[in-house]
Amino acid sequence: MTGPASTPASDVPDKLTLNVSGGTVQELTAKSGLRTIEFATPRAKLIEALGAAIREDLRDYPLALSAFEALIRDQEALASWDMANYITMRKLGYNDHGRVHAFVTGAASLAILELLLEGGVRPDLIESGIGDVGDVFLVVILATMLHDIGNQVHRAEHEQHGVHLARPIIDRILQPLYSDAFKRTKIRAFILHGINCHDLNPPPLTIEGGITAVADGSDITKGRGRKAFALGSVDIHSISALAVDQVVITRGDSKPVLIDVTMNNSGGIFQVEEVLAPKVIRTPLSRYVELRARTRPEGDEQILQSVRLDGDHFVMDLESGEQAVVEVKDTQKLVQDAVIGRLDVGSQSK
Questions:
Q1: pTM of the model
Q2: CA 283 to CA 35: how far, in whole Å?
Q3: Neighbours of 271 (CB within 10 A)
Q4: What CATH code is carried by the domain that includes residue 181?
Q5: Which of 171, 225, 239, 314 has the fewest CB within 10 Å, making it most exposed?
């Protein structure tokens, strides 16, 4: 399903641009549909800009907007984001997993959701008859912004920890918004599914859960990696994150969503392959999302010009003019398959 054929993708404003060049936050007019968030800004200013972008997207959905406002004032949520960041960044040397990451992925998730709806995609909440578009926006923003709070317990099994820790926060937010306990419980189930499945362990089964996973995978610019690097975490994750200058979420040519990654050197391909691509391939969004990555001409000695995702393979355009096709290396899935094979449980049916 694609957007209206009368409007070429090249003429459509980007839904969200996450950029690290320059030093100012630029919030363009709502009419343009374009928002540019500059990462080289103070943390408070960045959260303010992202919050404004989220509010603009939720303006026509009062329940979802109320849920967002309640979430960002909730003391348990605020403390959870801070402690998730303490464990991941201070103790493990990982990239940001706190408030900024929650706001970045929240804004990205709404951009993806809008493009899917414009492309005629029906989220599971609507397809099942449980809710409407406003309910979908509420589910996506809460699931995405709460997806990483389980890291406050430990990185290991943080998805499952997150489900338990998010429940009281979600209940507190939903109680005044949904008087019908039957519907409220179903809405909560969709949110918890997104939290549980955001890291593909297990993979999400719903469109809403896929949005949370892909939005999480799109936060790969050096704005996120710079702090971990500054704290002394020098590894392939922090180095490759510094190679990603920009992530643009916009309408695709053949699919409703295009995620376009710009790298200052080819080292950024690790972020695309290990973090983002699996979350496109292994979610219900695989049919609806194009993924493309390219290096800047002024970057390091050029080996490749651009990369695009084709099914579960990368098609690479090399500087020499040749083209290479490489299977995406999904490390997490390889480990899971190996464990299943060793336990001999993969072929059992119930």
A1: 0.79
A2: 26
A3: 30
A4: 1.10.3210
A5: 171
